[in-house]
UniProtKB/TrEMBL annotation:
Database matches in InterPro entries: BrxB/BrxA
Alphabetical list of Pfam families matching this protein: Disulph_isomer (PF06491)
Lineage: superkingdom: Bacteria
Official protein name in the record: BrxA/BrxB family bacilliredoxin
Protein family: Belongs to the bacilliredoxin family.
Species the sequence originates in: Paenibacillus chibensis
Length: 144
């Protein structure tokens, strides 16, 4: 019995998607969805660029989960999946200039403008707790 590559990838990736959507983070799967939700979005917006890599599993997603327990959190919570929803991810990255593409990564926007960004190299060498502390500091400063 053979399984298509697309079906295999969907089955393998779904738990990684669920880890964020289970926190109430909405997936943006198309460039149109990204534009609709990020362009000039009022208030604060969190965008997690999800990934299949080990640092996404061990540090990024758990760090985001911890940070969302903070009293102050962004008004809007979104994620795109690098390597899976390529066009949506490319569109989201347009909002993260001047930073180069990085996955995983975490962006906070205020009124549609990038105000805080955590790049992959700032995720790889830090614990989930350290990432959560970075995010909660940003949330406390920006989400008032």
């Amino acid at each position: 019995m053979s399984m298509s590559f697309d079906r295999y990838m969907k089955d393998m990736i779904q738990p990684m998607r669920d880890e964020l959507t289970g926190l109430g983070i909405k997936e943006l799967r198309t460039p149109e969805e990204v534009e609709m939700h990020l362009q000039d979005a009022p208030g604060t917006t969190l965008v997690v660029v999800n990934s299949v890599c080990g640092c996404a599993a061990g540090q990024c997603r758990p760090g985001v989960a911890l940070a969302l327990n903070n009293d102050l959190v962004p008004d809007h919570l979104f994620t795109v999946f690098a390597g899976q929803d390529k066009e949506a991810t490319a569109k989201a990255r347009e909002y993260f200039a001047p930073y180069p593409p990085s996955s995983p990564s975490i962006a906070v926007l205020k009124d549609g403008e990038l105000v805080h960004f955590i790049e992959r190299h700032q995720i790889e060498d830090r614990s989930a707790q350290e990432i959560a502390e970075d995010l909660t500091e940003a949330f406390d400063r920006l989400c008032r």
